[in-house]
Amino acid sequence: MNTLIVAGLLLVLLGLAYQMGWSKSRALATPQGVRVHSRSQYHGTLALLWTLVPAVLILAIWAFFSPGVTHWYAVSQIPADVLTSLDQIGLNQQLQRIRDLASGFGVAGEVQPFEVAAGENLGRFQLLSFLIMLAAAAGLGVLGLMLARRRISARLRARNEVERAVIVLLIACSAVAILTTVGIVASLVTEAFRFFTYVNPLDFFFGTVWAPKFSSTGAGDAGQYGLLPLLTGTLMISAIAMLVAVPVGLMTAIYLNQYAHRSVRKIVKPIIEILAGIPTIVYGFFALVTVGPFLRDFGNAIGLPISATSALTAGLVMGVMIIPFISSLSDDILNQVPRTLRDGAYGLGATQSETIRNVLLPAALPGIVGAFLLAVSRAIGETMIVVLAAGNAPILRGNPLEPVSTITVSIVNQLTGDTDFTGPQSLVAFALGLTLFIMTLCLNIVALYIVRRFREQYE
Amino acid sequence: MTDSTLASAAERRKLVRAGLTRRHAGERLFRAFGVIAICLALGFVALLFTDVLRKGIPAFTQSNIQLAVTFDPELLKVDAAPERSPGQSDADFRAARLGWERQVAMLNWNTVVEAALRNAAPEGFEIDSRQILTIAETDARHRVREIFVRDPALLGQTVTVDLLASANTDNWVKGNIDRNLADSQQQLSAPARALIDIFEENGTISQGFAWSLFSNVDSRSAPAAAGLLGALLGSMWMMLIVVILAVPIGVGSAIYLEEFAPKSRLTDLIEVNINNLAAVPSIVFGLLGAAVFINWFRLPLSAPLAGGLVLTLMTLPTIIIATRAALKGVSPALRQAALGMGASRTQMVFHHVLPVTFPSILTATIIGVAQALGETAPLLLIGMNAFVAAVPATPIDQATALPVQIYLWQGNENRNFFEPRTSAAIMVLLAFMITLNAVAIFLRSRLEKRA
Predict the structure, then answer these.
(1) Buried b vs exposed e over B425-443: b needs ≥16 C-beta within 10 Å?
(2) Are B242 and B308 in contact (CB under 8 A)?
(3) Which among B255, B287, B437 has the least Cβ separation from residue A187?
(4) Phi and psi angles of residue B207, each rounded to the nearest 5 degrees, phi first
(5) How far apart are CA A79 and CA A81, in angstroms?
(6) Is the pLDDT score of A217 beyond 50?
(7) Fewest CB within a 10 Å sphere: which of A228, A275, A371, B50?
(8) Alpha carbon of A17 to those of A40, A145, A166, A430: distances in Å?
């Protein structure tokens, strides 16, 4: 409600500001043909900016400080003798009661006289501080508008000033990407650091047992947090995925690039690329209800014990997901190999496949390795397929036919629905996330470096 | 000398001939590998889609029971609904009405449903009341009650009502359950199964399109009534947030980097940064959301607002990279012409360059939104997998999303019923994605022709 009032007020003020700036500028231009530096739209926009910026500053300051100030005031309203008898939880409950009284929401149970008084005071305080804030924001806005209006003259370079403001806005947009990275690194590092105050990093990185206890079993029993079972599971599934995706993806790219008729390529390529757009939860479900049972029955038929949810199931389906990734990247890279190389090989009498194997592929190899690394990084970070189809058995073993668990699965298990970041049970998700982030980051950087390096060869 | 070369030339020709067959065989083999690879990839696509379709299509029809429900005054001992007397205040009337509704809610509506079911059964059919009620969905009594509350004049009358059959009934009718299983392994009792067969024969139970799949929210107690509406709206809210935030920020960022940024260390850093962000695993964005948006900023848990923000950050790199590529593609002549006419750099960008790139930006946006629509993992970490049986009216209400709903349903223990339902939900999700992509392709081809 309050936000709506503020937004409405602000909009009215801004409309007014634009109108004032615009009309003043128009008025300037009419008499005796004065040349105005900027068009009136720019004057209007400038007035609008001069109004908007101070008002928004006040609003931001208020939004930042008001919860703290309100809290402090509410605490000061509780009589000293009551205050000393309350612990932290009791205090929070007491404050909530007072807040409910202040908002007119009402509370259950008997209301004590000091609560009524505190509630009334708090209500008055909140209303007053809101009004003061509103007055300050509006006042500063109007002040800014007045200043801007006074500045408007024929020689005012309004356009240049507006353009400078636009650039600042664009820089702010670019900063979001940086802030995102900073946010990722900061949140992962701080929370992982808190995790390492509970668990020795050596035990985490070299531990062979993954057995986090539930947080409900008490803080005394912290459980064991060995990364190795998860890491082997992750790598095993990624390896299986690559075994599926690389041959299929690469041969697809080669065939479409070198052999296929134009019309075939035009139809087949987008169909294969559909695979990249399918949500991973769909692959996960497909693996769980179709591929897994099929593999299990197939294993039964040939006398091999295959679990329905296993590294093999998840890896196979993940491989399918990665095929288009490998094939499109390889296709691009094959396209970049100069024609002259191929024509030279043909001139020497090589067949098409010999040219591809002995000339084209070696020339494109660095780029293909780069694509391969990008695909590995994608496989390592993939979540929903492994959550559904890998079986979630964090045990250190090398058999791909049995259930495994991965880093991403464990992150989901440890943090789902739990945002109480107090124990190692949920904080470990950030240590796992940090490991995952660093692994994929290294792979990506190396891959991008290789791809870029390779591209320069033929320029 | 000439002799020896002649001989060796003939030999050589022979050797080459022999080698040629081998090499041609190799050529054919290599080609065959290519064809096999393509067939495998296409086969996967076909398998995936036929599997989802085959499993999901049955879930779009649902068993309905058409019953003649009698609002028998004997069973429903309730006062007459309060009439508005002249001079009565609004509040008084509302209080009287609420009192009456409470009275109605307290009645045992199961008896009404049971009576209707018994009426439809053949004369003298032996079945106890608990068993007969398992045929209809557990929310049948609420449905019947709602009809009565809406029109209290129905007391003593009989109306025909379409009720949902229970999930177990639906499974039995559709043959998802082995009919030869022993009694102890069946979900429904023997008389109930027999009665369902009779109902099916005389047309009391019929199959209809499962509208409830789209008009209802998720439900735990009444699986047959569980629908996607809540998840659909949750996804819509998030898509809205993504479009409102990611597009202006992404385009702004791309414009700055491509058009204004000085070539410096900092802008290099931003560029590397954005490329890396595009490759960060989605679950890491979920961790960011959990730590920053939920834990530090205290945004509401399970709300589309937090989910939308996380998805916005994920979509940003896609939009920035695509927009930059589009800006790079604009011909320098256009820029020079604009500058030559005396436009400032800002005017050149916003009045001349940017409009030309609209088709590409639009396509990138739609593709980014489609990606965000299918994303599940980060949403699990910010609590969007909570069970929510309400339609989110604002972006800070608790909600779930379409892919998360799929995740929740696939884990439901009532497998026989929920496996088809999950596939149906997947079909809805895929339909959305395909529509979005088709729109992107259509718009691109259309706008590019015009530009």
Answers:
(1) bbbbbbebbeebbeebeee
(2) yes
(3) B287
(4) -95, 135
(5) 6
(6) no
(7) B50
(8) 13, 6, 18, 48
Higher per-residue pLDDT: A158 or A259: A259
Give the whole-angstrom CA distance, residue B219 versus residue B316: 35
Contacts of A257 (CB under 8 A, 6+ apart): A331, A334, A335
User: Would you say B72 and B159 are in contact if contact means Cβ atoms under 8 Å apart?
Assistant: no
Question: Cβ B38–A255 below 8 Å, yes or no?
Answer: yes
State residue A451's pLDDT score: 76
B292 at interface of A, judged by CB pairs closer than 8 A: yes
**How much is the pLDDT for A255?**
93
Q: Are B288 and A353 a contacting pair at CB < 8 A?
A: no
Closest chain B residue by Cα to residue A251: B34
Query: Are A177 and B403 inside 8 Å of each other by CB?
Result: no
Compute, in degrees rounded to 10, the torsion defined by CA atoms B417, B422, B427, B433.
170
Residue B224 gets which letter from DSSP?
A: G
Task: Return d(Cα A405, Cα A388) in angstroms, integer.
Answer: 10
Are B381 and A412 inside 8 Å of each other by CB?
A: yes
The partner residue sitting opposite B280, judged by closest CB among A176, A437, A448, is A437
> Could you give the C-alpha distances from A265 to A253, A371, B327, in angstroms and in order?
10, 21, 28
To the nearest whole Å, the CA of B201 is away from the closest chain A CA by 33
Q: Do the Cβ atoms of B420 and B59 come closer than 8 Å?
A: yes
Overall average pLDDT of the A37-62 stretch: 84
Strand, helix or coil at A209? coil
Q: What is the per-residue pLDDT across A220-255, written as a single tens digit (0 to 9) for each? A: 456 788 899 999 999 999 999 999 999 999 999 999
Of A163, A178, A440, the CB nearest to B270: A178
Amino acid at B45: V
**pLDDT computed for residue B12 by the predictor:** 84
**Which residues are paired to A210 by β-bridges?**
A225
Distances (CA, A) of B132 to A318, A375, A404, B80, B112: 46, 56, 45, 30, 12
Taking 50 as the threshold, does the pLDDT of residue A268 lie above it? yes
Q: Which among B33, B269, B403 has the least Cβ separation from residue A251?
A: B33
Helical (H) or strand (E) element with B322: helix B304-329
Nearest-angstrom CA–CA distance, B256 and B29? 52
Q: Please judge whether A433 and B284 are an interchain contact, meaning their C-beta atoms are less than 8 angstroms apart.
A: yes
Q: Residues 402 to 441 of B: which have CB under 8 A from any A CB?
A: 403, 406-407, 410, 419, 422-423, 426, 429-430, 433, 437
Tell me whether residues A353 and B41 touch, CB distance under 8 A.
no
Q: Looking at the predicted structure, is the pLDDT value of residue B176 above 60?
A: yes
Q: Does B27 touch chain A (CB under 8 A)?
A: yes
Look at B27 and A167 and tell me if their CB atoms are within 8 Å: no
Of B26, B256, B280, the CB nearest to A353: B26
The answer to whether the pTM exceeds 0.90 is no
Distance from the Cα of B281 to chain A's closest Cα (Å) equals 5
- Give the helix/strand (H/E) hosting B268: helix B265-279
CB of B16 within 8 Å of a chain A CB? The answer is no
Tell me the C-alpha distance between A115 and A95, whole Å.
9
B354-374 vs A262-277: helix axis angle to the nearest 10?
60
Location of structure tokens 């006398």: A303
Cβ neighbours of residue A410 under 8 Å, at least 6 residues apart? A210, A230, A394, A428, A429, A432
